[in-house]
Amino acid sequence: MPDEVPTPDEVWQLLIHVVGTRDRWKRRITERTGLPFSRIKILRTLRSGPMAVKQLAAAAAMDPPAATVTVNDLEQRGLVLRTVDPANRRCKLVSITESGREVLADALATSDPAPESIATLSDSERVTLRALLHKLDR
Questions:
Q1: Residue 3 lies inside a defined structural domain of this protein
Q2: How far is CA 45 from the centre of its chain?
Q3: What is the pLDDT of residues 37-58, one digit of tens each?
Q4: Helices assigned H by DSSP within the chain
Q5: Residue-wise pLDDT tens digits, 85-131
Q6: Which CATH number characterizes residue 77's domain?
Q7: How many domains does the chain have?
Q8: Which of 19, 58, 90, 133 has CA 20 to 30 A from 11's CA?
Q9: H-helix or E-strand spanning residue 87
């Protein structure tokens, strides 16, 4: 019934269904940069500063072996650099290079148009939706 108060899980599932997974955007980024999206995810994570591979894996929600393979590939492409951690000489830190920043900027400049369902909302509905999303983003 439309007047029933939905559960938070019901609202969440509907939101996920409407928004989707951004697969089209990720595909566009891959086509634009020639890099798998997992590489872009690592570059984006490194914007906040150098990290050990284990930290990087956790921050990017990847398992450490996959993060290592990704970092190896990015390093071969000149997009990241490994250096000795001055605080722990047994550890290496991974940082993004200037070339990596350029690739990341290009990737993030890829358009991600709204789903048609959002485009059909009225101006006032979009204002209301934006206010609700800002409230959820706290």
A1: no
A2: 8
A3: 999 999 999 999 999 999 999 9
A4: 8-19, 23-33, 37-45, 53-59, 64-76, 98-108, 116-119, 123-136
A5: 999 888 999 999 999 999 999 999 999 888 888 889 999 999 999 99
A6: 1.10.10.10
A7: 1
A8: 58
A9: none
